[in-house]
TrEMBL record:
Family affiliation: Belongs to the NPR2 family.
Species name: Auricularia subglabra (strain TFB-10046 / SS5)
InterPro entries attached to this UniProt entry: NPR2-like
GO molecular function terms listed in the Swiss-Prot or TrEMBL record: GTPase activator activity
GO annotation (BP), single: negative regulation of TORC1 signaling
Protein name as annotated: Nitrogen permease regulator 2
Length: 445
């Protein structure tokens, strides 16, 4: 099941500004031409008029397309020396300008004491909150060209400075089209740029979390990968929880959690709960009120169908999802809805519903009501073990000593089962054995 990623904001314009020893702050080149007024921009006689990889017409804007006047932001684009070498963002009219001013001291030509420049990206202000992926790109361009200037006076020599216009064109076109660019500066140096999406921090990974893969890892495995990653990935099957994966891969559970968190960050896995027929789920209201995309419908029909069986129509599948209600276990749902293994793969049906947000799990949080003195409540914590507790025959019929403090309504049954390495049937047997000391009730949420 593919996971869509948000595309980076489109670059409206790119310009290259310098501090000229005679004329002061000015724009040397901009792409498209004429979008920024008052910059004294000139179009060079191109030795490389378009990027080597493309046959592209030169972009020229009309006066009515002008975004803003360069003079209004010139002192910020090319600031005093103390502010150079830092990322700058400027809001002007309905746009945001991002740049990285660079000042090369003690210039090699000895005709001036410094050379100052800035290559700025212009974005629409409506995308100002999504510009973080461009920050490392703008920094890299500034620093790479700064090093090249120190080595060969690339920017300050008229013959090579003309190359900047075609470089800007290629950056503008390639980053907007492909979110990456590879631009040779000479026989040795090049600009290698890539806009990486800024992904949100993943949600916590627990021992009872079940990672579901979005990609076929076997097709992407590489010997250069981290050893733990290589050991863990073969056991990520959408069924096994983290603690079980740790046992099967013979890895520390903490390292497995870190590995899964890494995969989760790059949106190659999705976390769900441990599937059991005793689980209780409820459908979300948005399933009925929000139209479902045709691609999702087709994906659902294909994903949940047993092998070599006919695909069910979406109205039938939608009706099955809506029959998940609080208080009804998966087992009861299959009986009430008449679901058979020949019609629907139940585990995959539930998995798909969780990933797409059709369903939510209703967990059971047991709490102990003592007949005598009140049980310590709210202060117990279930620490994540490096490996799940081994099943000990001596404790199958008698609960461990530390169970009652954990029955405080803050730990659900999945947590407890994985922590002690037992199934739900054993856990319920332990609850029953506590009757002389009090009762065990469950909060469902």
């Amino acid at each position: 099941m593919a996971h869509a990623r948000k595309l980076p904001p489109r670059i409206v314009s790119i310009f290259y500004a310098i501090f000229h020893e005679t004329h002061g702050r000015q724009i040397e080149y901009q792409v498209p031409e004429g979008l920024i007024a008052g910059g004294s921009s000139t179009t060079p006689d191109h030795t490389r008029s378009c990027p080597r990889k493309h046959n592209c017409p030169q972009s020229v804007a009309t006066s009515s397309d002008t975004l803003f006047d360069f003079e209004s932001i010139a002192t910020y684009v090319l600031p005093p020396a103390d502010f150079c070498g830092r990322l700058i963002t400027i809001s002007v009219r309905n746009h945001v300008v991002m740049g990285f001013p660079v000042r090369v001291e003690g210039h090699a030509t000895r005709k001036r004491t410094f050379f100052q420049y800035n290559i700025c990206f212009v974005f629409h202000s409506s995308q100002s909150t999504d510009l973080a992926p461009y920050e490392p790109v703008v920094r890299k361009i500034g620093r790479t060209l700064g090093n090249h200037e120190q080595e060969s006076s690339f920017l300050s020599t008229p013959k090579t400075a003309k190359e900047m216009h075609s470089i800007l064109e290629q950056i503008h076109e390639d980053l907007n089209r492909h979110a990456e660019a590879s631009i040779p500066l000479d026989l040795i140096n090049s600009l290698e740029l890539k806009v990486l999406p800024l992904l949100p921090n993943p949600k916590p990974v627990y021992d009872w979390s079940v990672p579901v893969p979005f990609v076929d890892f076997s097709k992407h495995m590489d010997r250069s990968w981290d050893i733990t990653m290589q050991q863990v990935i073969p056991h990520i099957d959408g069924i096994s929880h983290v603690a079980k994966i740790a046992l099967m891969s013979k890895c520390d559970a903490g390292l497995v959690r870190e590995t899964v968190a890494h995969l989760l960050y790059y949106q190659t896995v999705h976390l769900i709960d441990i599937f059991q027929y005793s689980n209780v789920y409820a459908h979300r209201k948005s399933l009925i009120s929000r139209p479902t995309e045709e691609s999702v419908i087709l994906e659902c029909r294909t994903y949940v169908a047993p092998q070599n069986q006919a695909l069910l129509e979406w109205p039938t599948l939608l009706d099955l999802y809506t029959q998940f209600t609080p208080g009804t276990s998966v087992k009861s749902w299959t009986e009430l809805a008449g679901v058979t293994a020949e019609r629907v793969d139940v585990r995959r049906f539930v998995t798909f519903g969780l990933i797409k947000g059709f369903l939510r799990r209703i967990h059971a949080y047991p709490y102990h009501i003592s007949d005598g003195s009140p049980t310590n409540s709210g202060n117990s914590t279930l620490q994540a073990a490096t490996t799940p507790t081994a099943i000990r025959p001596a404790t199958i019929n008698s609960p461990p000593d530390d169970l009652v403090p954990l029955l405080d309504g803050n730990h659900h049954t999945d947590q407890l089962c994985v922590h002690y390495g037992v199934g739900l049937a054993v856990l319920e047997r332990w609850f029953a054995s506590l009757k002389p000391q009090g009762k065990v009730r469950c909060i469902y949420r």
